[in-house]
Amino acid sequence: MRSLWIVNGQIWNENKEQLETRHVKIENGLIAAIEDGAAGIPDTAGYEVVDAAGKLVSAGLIDMHVHLRDPGFEHKEDIATGTRSAAKGGFTTIACMPNTRPVTDTPETVRYILDKAAAEGVVKVLPYAAITKNELGRELTDFAALKEAGAVGFTDDGVGVQNAQMMKNAMALAASMDMPVIAHCEDDSLVEGLFVSEGKFAERSGLKGIPNESEAIHVGRDVLLAESTGVHYHVCHVSTEQSVRLIRLAKQVGIKVTAEVCPHHLVLSDEDIPGMDANWKMNPPLRTPRDVEAVIEGLEDGTLDMIVTDHAPHSAEEKARGMQLAPFGIVGFETAFPLLYTKFVQTGKWTLGFLLKRMTTDPARVFRLSSGRLEIGAPADVTIVDLENERTVDPESFVSKSNNTPFGGWKLSGWPVLTIVDGSVVWSEL
Q1: pLDDT in tens, 206-228
Q2: C-alpha torsion 187→193→196→200, nearest 10
Q3: Phi/psi at 221 (nearest 5 deg)?
Q4: How far is residue 429 from each of residues 6, 88, 415, measured CA to CA in Å?
Q5: Nearest-angstrom CA–CA distance, 184 and 159
Q6: C-alpha–C-alpha distance, residues 293 and 184, integer Å
Q7: Other C-beta atoms within 10 Å of 53: how many?
Q8: What is the pTM of this model?
């Protein structure tokens, strides 16, 4: 662990809703001091110094929904490349999904991920474990053993748990252990063989589309089961107006439900899809402009608690199969912050503080993490962002093994340039 000073940085003052110059001292992996920039440069003798003049200094970004593809799909991504891609995007803590091969449904696989992350990763990796064995929806995994091994929650992400009794049993067991259930909400009977949502793109392409209720039916079912069991129920990648409405109602009556939304569902609709390009194929699919407005409103009013990337790398060969045959998913680490900063903060729709809160403080609060705070005594997980730097998204420059993105060629501002985890610089462009 290094001892260093970050000098001349711009830190968001939540009370005054403005940026202010501050110097941040890091010792033994913790934030040791935050000093007023008006007092001049502190004594930095014996310390490494990072000059962040004119740049945002924030608590490290947190992403509670990512796919590292390791074990089993290392041709798409692995823990080493995935964590470096996360660090380049400003993320210091990430939570990886269990739809690996083998599925992360045993203590041994959980420990494999944690051990490999410790040896080869550069950011903090929190593994989720599967709800059911092999994510087949037939038999619960050993929740107690998985928790003891280091799992931070249970999810069959990639598929929805189709059997309501199975989901209720899972919620009851998780609640007894004070663990969250994280749900991919999708009714298979409404989506089989389909790959875009109902909407104008499907209409003009002559395709049958995935209806919104395929997601919302599971949300409605699960909030009732969560009410019955008392579990902390977290909804993955919310994308429809109906889901937002159900989550809002559930929160109003005191059900312990939280939820997340992805950048692509905040900035793109099905009407933006240019053609049968599989880089625009993700699950949930891009929805209608009305749904985009609903998830934005849901994020703004707190119905949706946080932003996640659902970083889902696939090889170029897999995506070249075309919209119908290619796998679902896009990469997200390296474009998430600049995309949202450009779309919402530069346009005046959100304050910078709001965006930071939804990507740091709020995920930390929901999942009870010690990070997400730029405060004395907090872990020294820090992201430095050049808010003025405008760049064109170049997928060939991604650190990820994969470059499946619909945002290639977009001009964005607000690029992370330095990432610190537990006091150590793990990514730097300074």
Answers
A1: 999 999 999 999 999 999 999 99
A2: -100
A3: -60, -45
A4: 15, 9, 10
A5: 6
A6: 21
A7: 10
A8: 0.97
Cα Rg of the chain, angstroms: 21
| 326-367 residue pLDDT tens | 999 999 999 999 999 999 999 999 999 999 999 999 999 999
* Contact assessment for residue 67 and residue 311, using Cβ atoms and an 8 Å cutoff: yes
Residue with tokens 């993105």: 405
Handedness of CA 209, 213, 216, 222 (dihedral sign): negative
CB 333 within 8 A of CB 311: yes
Q: Hey, what are 6's tokens?
A: 């970050």
Are β-strands 233-235 and 181-183 bridged in parallel, bridged antiparallel, or unpaired? parallel
C-alpha span between 354 and 360 (Å, rounded): 10
For the CA atoms of 164, 170, 174, 176, the dihedral, rounded to the nearest 10 degrees, stands at 90
Q: Which residues are catalytic?
A: 310
Q: H-type helices in 137-280, by residue range?
A: 143-149, 164-176, 200-205, 213-229, 241-252, 263-267
